[in-house]
């Protein structure tokens, strides 16, 4: 990994001073000339640092006076509430989540001006030019690639590249063990089919990615929703309680890093305890690790699978959020169920097409991939900050937001009387698409939440859209208050 | 469709005379000069016709004497025996077919000199150059194709192209109803999951494609093997009997055209009766129509789905046997189960990648596709004939073969005492890969059969390999005879 650039190191230094109160709101920053002397840096580095902190909302430039410390508006947003671990839980096979999701998705399929419902970055955040060139050059190199039968077992190059990259998250595995799938969604299907049957209960985070609820519904399994913290992920107390209450839990599914929609990241100690707990109870743990490369910082978080001694953890991940949303490439390590999962994969969809695998393999093996990830993380961080500023500016009092430490979206809690479905409908009439909270649970527990995408360049148009959204939320909050008064 | 070329029309004329005995073995053909006068054709056409019939094994050239009628050697091969409709049937959930298939496939994964186990044509039988050029030009046309999120619902162009092509097999549908899948194997999975559950009994052809048996095993369903004729496909008498005997059949799966491995083609009257029968018994019919475009003649056979009035037929097909083995593109029409299948597809693997869909769509919409298919059919016909000649030449007495009316393989019945597993092992030791009959049934009913691929250019090496195979079969037939004597 490359070290952070000089101006970023300097920025961290001053940010820390601001956070600790050494530099208070309204304080003047040292002048650029002073910064150059103090830190023995060039004019360009000093300026870059100030502009960076300005863009992040921590400094404001006053003409002819220099830079002054300010508090970003988003500081005013209260963090989301922590869930109560003892919340009453009921395993639900919500026959209808697919219909609910489909109806929302179907409505959102017409072209809109501003799409905040996406779960990926905008297409130009990914290395489209390099991937396109790779595609053409690979087709020249392997002229029969599109017309020869796909080699059994999946593409060896991609499997090697993924096994190597797995070292970054603390997993030591071999290319042979990597099963390439059609996206993480196929991996989750295979994992669940390997360890459970129709009618079985599966513990999931709450809120959770609606795609998982749809998978459970399609397999006839029941979701047991476990309270999950916006900062530290699934509540281990609640999970343990659930395991004591229900003796028929057949698997636990978690997204330890940048959970969708919360953005929470489980501390290492929690992941380790979770692995131990599941093992002790003999309940398979399915880890969905599709987002970890988008976490802030230069060290990718360690996978729960790292602490797995017995093969009780099935590791699932994908490349489309981090490398290329147009490639449906997921992958998994099957743990104790490796043979069964391999069989299911072969019987379900055979092996993936080779071209996309070769494109991905070649890119993953190069240092371009590391450069891409660093750039993507920086861009997303800036965009998340700006989105949070916009929300703090335009959304009404009572709005809550825990800033996630990475990822492509924020999870916004609106005043409790506001229904996300109503916001969705009103926003769509104004050509804005949002992802309503009611999709993220079998209950209506999160109906006053929105998941807003931060993967798009923060433009004037986007700011306007946030203004429109803010007014919609404000209006709905007032109407409801009046109605209930 | 283009009319057959002049020399082919002429060839058909003389072939008919030979078949009817008007021209007997040993008879001299009219001279080339005579042919030119008789039919008012050019020298080149007359010569082309004679050379074509020579290549097909019906004429032999004698120096300075002209062409003489001969019988191809394959005429000496007796056709495969018809099954007995009343054969005792037992629904079997063969837990282990996957293991059996995997062990065979795993052994065959090392590079071999001659691969006769393939289920597709050789890569150069497909339009690799055109597809490659399309890929590069589409990537230029849509520069963000690899990095933008896949559009919901699947690629519209491909769905339109497939709906249009469906007219050729007698199906009138709309682009909206086409569900694009990861190969026909995913389509079969989705179809079976939509109509049946673990433990249910599914009627299948016997012998049948081992992939289907693996799908059934992986879904926990039981295969009920119905006797199937090498010429007319599934026995309707046997199927009806089975429906009377077992009241828990939840679906019937058939490959009406160029059944794998038999190569049989169901007559239209049979397909119609099958559709009516299934409808009357309220049992869903799943039609796998992946090979029909490879049937001889200029008219693609009519799908069973054509006679479906009530949505009781689920139609599944794919493009990799006919257009490009490297593209994992299947598709289906869900009939009454359309909504359920769409949900399962979404929850299982989302939508397919766009690039391959666009490549296929663009090619299907052009007349290049028709030209490709005509050429592919002609090439395969010649290669099947040559393979049959080779088998007639080198395999021992008692070998049986029904020439299929199209497709990429032949199904060879060896003397009953010969085990296909033993042939497989012995052949592999000599670097030849075959597909043993024991894979095509849960029973050992077809252990003395081989499926041999005809998709490779018939070379001297290939002829030698058939010689080796013939000796292996002969040796095994003798040893077994002695042992049992």
Can I get a quick summary?
The structure is a homodimer of 485-residue chains. Chain A is of the alpha/beta class.
Characterization of this structure:
Chain A has 485 residues and is of the alpha/beta class. Chain A folds into 3 domains: 6-71, Arc Repressor Mutant, subunit A (Orthogonal Bundle); 102-124 and 370-484, Alpha-Beta Complex (Aspartate Aminotransferase, domain 1); 125-367, Aspartate Aminotransferase, domain 2. Chain A contains 15 helices and 16 strands. Chain A has an 8-stranded mixed beta sheet with strand order 4-11-10-9-8-5-6-7, sandwiched between helices. A 4-stranded antiparallel beta sheet of chain A has the order 12-13-16-15. In chain A, strand 5 (201-206), helix 8 and strand 6 form a beta-alpha-beta unit. In chain A, helix 14 (420-429) crosses helix 15 (460-484). Chain A is globular, with a radius of gyration of 23 Å. The termini of chain A are far apart. The mean pLDDT of chain A is 92.
Task: Using brief descriptors, characterize the structure shown.
homodimer; 485 residues; alpha/beta; Arc Repressor Mutant, subunit A; Aspartate Aminotransferase, domain 1; 3 domains; 8-stranded mixed β-sheet; globular
Beta-strand residue fraction of chain A: 5-15%
Strand order of the largest sheet of chain A: 4-11-10-9-8-5-6-7
CATH top level of the largest domain in chain A? Alpha Beta
Q: Roughly what is the average pLDDT of chain A, rounded to an integer?
A: 92
The parts of chain A where pLDDT drops under 50 for at least 5 residues are none
Which chains make the largest contact? A-B, 61 and 61 residues
CATH superfamily of the largest domain in chain A: Type I PLP-dependent aspartate aminotransferase-like (Major domain)
For the sheet with most strands of chain A, the description reads: 8 strands, mixed
Helicity range of the residues of chain A?
40-55%
**Rg from alpha-carbon coordinates of chain A:** 23 Å
Instruction: Assign the CATH architecture of the largest domain in chain A.
Output: 3-Layer(aba) Sandwich
Principal-axes shape call of chain A: globular
Number of helices of chain A: 15
From the 3D structure, determine the CATH topology of the largest domain in chain A. Answer: Aspartate Aminotransferase, domain 2
How many separate structural domains of chain A? 3
GO molecular function (chains A, B): DNA binding; DNA-binding transcription factor activity; pyridoxal phosphate binding; transaminase activity
Protein name (chains A, B): PLP-dependent aminotransferase family protein
Organism (chains A, B): Undibacterium jejuense
Keywords (chains A, B): Aminotransferase, DNA-binding, Pyridoxal phosphate, Transcription, Transcription regulation, Transferase
């Amino acid at each position: 990994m490359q070290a952070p650039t000089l101006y970023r190191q300097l920025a961290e230094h001053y940010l820390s001073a601001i956070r600790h109160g050494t530099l208070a709101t309204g304080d003047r920053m040292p002048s650029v000339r002073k910064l150059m002397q103090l830190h023995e840096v060039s004019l360009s580095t000093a300026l870059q640092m100030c502009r960076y902190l300005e863009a992040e909302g921590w400094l404001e430039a006053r003409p002819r006076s220099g830079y002054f410390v300010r508090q970003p508006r988003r500081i005013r947003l209260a963090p989301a509430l922590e869930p109560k671990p003892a919340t009453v839980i009921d395993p639900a096979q919500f026959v209808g989540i697919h219909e609910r999701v489909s109806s929302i998705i179907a409505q959102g399929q017409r072209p809109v001006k501003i799409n905040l419902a996406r779960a990926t970055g905008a297409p130009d955040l990914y290395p489209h030019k390099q991937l396109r060139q790779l595609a053409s050059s690979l087709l020249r190199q392997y002229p029969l690639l599109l017309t020869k039968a796909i080699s059994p077992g999946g593409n060896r190059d991609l499997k090697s590249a993924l096994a190597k990259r797995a070292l970054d998250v603390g997993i030591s595995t071999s290319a042979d063990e990597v099963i390439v799938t059609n996206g993480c969604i196929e991996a989750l299907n295979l994992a669940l089919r390997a360890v459970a049957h129709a009618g079985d209960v599966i513990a999931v985070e709450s809120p959770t990615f609606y795609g998982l609820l749809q998978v459970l519904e399609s397999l006839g399994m029941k979701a047991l929703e476990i309270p999950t913290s916006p900062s530290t992920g699934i509540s281990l107390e609640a999970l343990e309680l659930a395991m004591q209450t229900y003796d028929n839990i057949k698997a636990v599914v978690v997204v330890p890093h940048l959970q969708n929609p919360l953005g929470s990241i489980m501390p290492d100690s929690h992941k380790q305890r979770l692995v131990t707990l599941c093992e002790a109870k003999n309940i398979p743990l399915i880890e969905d690790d599709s987002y970890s490369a988008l976490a802030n910082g230069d060290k990718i978080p360690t996978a729960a699978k790292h602490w797995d001694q017995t093969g009780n953890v099935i590791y699932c991940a994908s490349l489309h959020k981090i490398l290329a949303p147009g490639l449906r490439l997921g992958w998994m390590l099957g743990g104790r169920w490796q043979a069964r999962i391999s069989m299911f994969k072969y019987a379900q969809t055979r092996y993936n097409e080779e071209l996309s695998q070769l494109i991905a393999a070649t890119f993953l093996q190069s240092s371009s991939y590391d450069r891409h990830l660093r750039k993507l993380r920086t861009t997303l961080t800036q965009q998340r900050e700006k989105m949070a500023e916009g929300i703090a500016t335009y959304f009404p009092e009572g709005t809550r937001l825990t800033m996630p430490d990475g990822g492509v979206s924020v999870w916004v809690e609106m005043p409790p009387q506001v229904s996300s479905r109503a916001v969705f409908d009103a926003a769509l009439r104004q050509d804005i698409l949002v992802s309503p909270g009611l999709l993220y649970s079998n209950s209506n527990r999160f109906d006053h939440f929105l998941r807003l995408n931060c993967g798009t360049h923060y433009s004037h148009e986007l700011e306007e859209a946030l203004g429109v959204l803010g007014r919609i939320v404000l209006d709905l909050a007032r109407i409801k208050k009046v109605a209930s008064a």
